[in-house]
Amino acid sequence: MVTAYISPEAFRQLKRIAADEDRQQQDLLLEGINAVFEKRGLSRIA
Fold first, then answer.
1. CA distance linking residue 17 with residue 40, whole number of Å
2. Tell me, what's the pLDDT at 46?
3. pLDDT 10s digits, 9-25
4. Any residues with CB less than 8 A from the CB of 18 and at least 6 apart, and which?
5. Is 3 inside a domain boundary?
6. Is residue 33 domain-resident?
7. Confidence (pTM)
8. What is the reported pLDDT for 22?
9. Domain assignment of residue 12, yes or no
10. How many domains, the chain?
């Protein structure tokens, strides 16, 4: 488990994207973590 603070504005945007795309917020967070890995030449394993 990982905990991170994001601003209220960022949280609202995350919720909006999740709702617009009919996805879970967690799925979007994992997508972001995988993007960080990929950018650094690592495997997308999250």
1. 25
2. 85
3. 999 999 999 999 999 99
4. 24, 25, 27, 28
5. no
6. yes
7. 0.86
8. 98
9. yes
10. 1
